[in-house]
UniProtKB/TrEMBL annotation:
GO cellular component, as recorded: nucleus
E.C. number: 2.1.1.354
SUPFAM superfamilies according to UniProt: SET domain (SSF82199)
Coiled-coil ranges per UniProt: none
CDD domains noted in UniProt: SET_SMYD1
Organism, as annotated: Leptobrachium leishanense (Leishan spiny toad)
Name of this protein: [histone H3]-lysine(4) N-trimethyltransferase
Record keyword Iron-sulfur present: no
Amino acid sequence: MCWARGNLPARAHSNSPFGQGMLVVVCALLLVSSPAMGSLQLAEGLLCVTPSTSCGMMAPSDAMLQWPTRRLLLTLLPSHPLHGLTKTRFGADVTLYRWTRDQVTGSSLTHNVCHTCFKRQEKLHRCGQCKFAHYCDRTCQKDAWLNHKNECSAVKKLGKAPNENIRLAARIMWRIERESSGLAEGCLVSIDDLQNHIDNFQDEEKNGLMDDVQNFLDYWLSQGQQFGMNYISHIFGVISCNGFTLSDQRGLQAVGVGIFPNLCLVNHDCWPNCTVIFNNGKIELRSLGKINKGDELSVSYIDFLNLTEDRQQQLKRQYYFDCTCEQCTKKTTDALLLAVKEGDPKPADSVVKEVTQFSMDTMEKIDKARSEGLYHEVVKYCRDCLKRQEPVLADTNIHKLRILSISSEVLSYLQMFEEAAENAKKMVDGYLKIYHPHNAQLGMAVMRAGVTHWHAGIIEVGHGMICKAFAILLITHGPSHPIAKDLEAMRAQTEMELRMFQQNEFVYYKMREAALSNRPIQVMQEPKNEAQGMIFHKKS
Ligand SMILES: *[C@@H]1O[C@H](CO)[C@@H](O)[C@H](O)[C@H]1NC(C)=O
Ligand SMILES: *[C@@H]1O[C@H](CO)[C@@H](O)[C@H](O)[C@H]1NC(C)=O
Ligand SMILES: [Zn+2]
Ligand SMILES: [Zn+2]
Ligand SMILES: [Zn+2]
């Protein structure tokens, strides 16, 4: 399981400066209303699944889906309101589809996250029966009851809650019992038809699966229907390779896992035309640009920022298929990611090789230091490495971008905002040349860089970046997403500060100083491992 994403340090780290405050009211500003943007009405059932003629696959009921290898095309029906959408109407809410299905919270977070909407909160109400489920309020509790009822009895009987895979499998099977056979409304594919890839599992994964099945049997309370061992294993296999990682309302932490069969129909493309986002307890499939009639919808299962070979390797290892998308075939971005500093003379190949190796070695040391919370060490490694890279690697070089990203996060965390801002700016300039202009990871990176500039008092650049991030996140996350709302508030605040700055710099700095000394409010997120952006939760 991959809840504690990589090297995420414990939140209450003893030397942690987290919480010791930094300027400017961000949180208090969340009152600003959402943008005046038209929202296209969603209608159920507007997606259609068609067998892909190019690879001759059959309809889902006829064949086990070769997920996630290419097999079916998910397209919009011509009646979908987004057909024929012009470029200029973009920026409106471009949600294609919204799904809720079987979803559970991660085991380490069951007391901190609402089991219905997955908001991370301090104060939650506990289910009086099982004392396991937690909710924001009565509404969330009521909404959960249908799915929680059996779980509640099972947890009570067992005396504790099993891990999330087991809880999810049980929810899926209780649903199957409730809804009996046939496809539920709005469901384009049955869980029976999803691939489980158990044959591809390594020994260790197989053992994990067997343990889960055993523990499941102790937990499961049947409502009548009997499921065979093969079927139970199938469900666990499906969860393992099709489980969708749910993140909290700020997109900062993985808080749960869900199975959304419809989502599994969307194929991977490294340069996709849709994105998936978890918003208020629901999965949204959002369009990133104009969708043409009959076009296949695609999403990216992984972060784009990697060399073609590495992306392909990651997809093969985690999702068992060979990516043959256009980006992978043409290796479009590799030149930028491997670029060497222009100049006369160009750095020698041997030097480039040496610096690249040095960067990779440093990266390992950084990961280790970061996992131990030794952030000052991390800063030292980053500074050394950037100095070595500077005369040799171009600004879009992946090894440079990785160091810039870590160093800006860690420096922000240590409240060394000016140096953090300088590195964040270089990183964003590189990202803008590499990522699709509507990419969620890009939007989040620009947002963090904007906040860093703001905190460093570089208000013009900071405001510009916050506006840019807002524009990206309106498309990738939508105006109703809590992060987009935060950004909108920050945009208003930085705009006000920028105006103040332009009218009278002296007054601006005076006020800033005052704010800095009095207001322990906005804090930086603890630096975390960047290796997110993977939509399905199968671990590597
Ligand atoms: C959407 O993505 C699919 C598959 O990646 C591709 O075939 C199609 O041309 C894309 N459409 C647009 C408008 O980008
Ligand atoms: C890049 O690819 C490698 C090899 O597949 C993988 O281990 C790594 O996690 C990827 N990095 C990111 C940031 O996705
Ligand atoms: Zn809730
Ligand atoms: Zn309960
Ligand atoms: Zn690809």
